[in-house]
Amino acid sequence: MTTALTTTDRLAGILPDIEVAALTPLIEEIEVLKRQRNAVVLAHNYMTPDIYHGVSDLTGDSLALARLAAETDADVIVMAGVHFMAETAKIVSPDKTVLIPNLEAGCSLAASITPEDIATLRERYPGAPVVTYVNTSAAVKAASDITCTSGNAVQVVESLDADRVIFIPDQYLGRWVAGQTDKEIILWQGSCEVHERFTGDELREYRELYPGIQIIAHPECPTDVLEEADYVGSTSGMLNWVRTEVPERVVMVTECSMSDNVAVGSPETEFIRPCNLCPYMKLITLEGIRDALRDMKHEVIVPDDIAEGARLAVNRMLALG
Question: 110-192, superfamily in CATH?
Answer without folding.
Answer: NadA-like (3.40.50.10800)
